[in-house]
């Protein structure tokens, strides 16, 4: 009987710790995220939706920009999962590669801009906690991770585009005519 009591106490303690962690985020992280989201939306409204749309179209004409700047802007301004809606600026034949790049960038952006993908924040905070315990800067880690992420999304985007175009040519798809 004593072991059942021990298990029950341990089970409840797990949820108490989760509640403490949640309260820490409510008083620390969530206000920051709300302010960041508000600032990004205000910036879009100040610039103007049409200008943002035109800029997005310009950044998709070049293959390097299409899989670096474009997904970074999508994740920064819209966050996950709304960032994928930036695909509307692309012809169908480029959408799979954009999705690959944008999805791949969900985590690397979190260290610098946690509003972009709050769901990945738990992963980042775990890594940052370990780095802090070792006495290293989380800022440097965030910048390096961001840069590595941009390089990886460019490579993945270009490779996925090449594979998609190959498959479309092989199937003689009309999407190639766009």
UniProtKB/TrEMBL annotation:
Please give the GO cellular component terms listed in this UniProt entry.
Answer: membrane
Q: Which residues form a coiled coil?
A: none
Matching entries from InterPro entries are given as: PTS_IID_sorb (IPR004699)
Biological process terms from the Gene Ontology for this record are: phosphoenolpyruvate-dependent sugar phosphotransferase system
> Keyword annotations for this protein?
Membrane, Transmembrane, Transmembrane helix
Q: Where are the transmembrane segments?
A: 22-44, 64-84, 142-159
Q: What is this protein called?
A: PTS system, glucitol/sorbitol-specific IIC component
């Amino acid at each position: 009987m004593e072991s059942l009591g021990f298990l029950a106490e341990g089970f409840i303690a797990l949820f108490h710790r989760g509640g403490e962690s949640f309260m820490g985020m409510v008083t620390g992280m969530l206000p920051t995220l709300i302010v960041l989201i508000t600032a990004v939306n205000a910036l879009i409204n100040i610039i103007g939706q049409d200008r943002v749309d035109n800029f997005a179209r310009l950044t998709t004409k070049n293959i390097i920009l299409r899989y670096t700047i474009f997904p970074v802007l999508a994740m920064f301004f819209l966050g996950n999962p709304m960032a994928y809606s930036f695909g509307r600026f692309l012809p169908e034949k480029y959408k799979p590669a954009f999705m690959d790049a944008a999805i791949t960038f969900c985590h690397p952006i979190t260290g610098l801009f946690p509003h972009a993908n709050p769901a990945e924040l738990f992963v980042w905070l775990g890594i940052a906690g370990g780095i802090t315990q070792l006495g290293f800067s989380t800022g440097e880690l965030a910048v390096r991770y961001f840069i590595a992420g941009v390089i990886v999304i460019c490579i993945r985007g270009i490779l996925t585009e090449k594979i998609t175009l190959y498959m479309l040519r092989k199937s003689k798809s009309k999407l190639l005519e766009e």
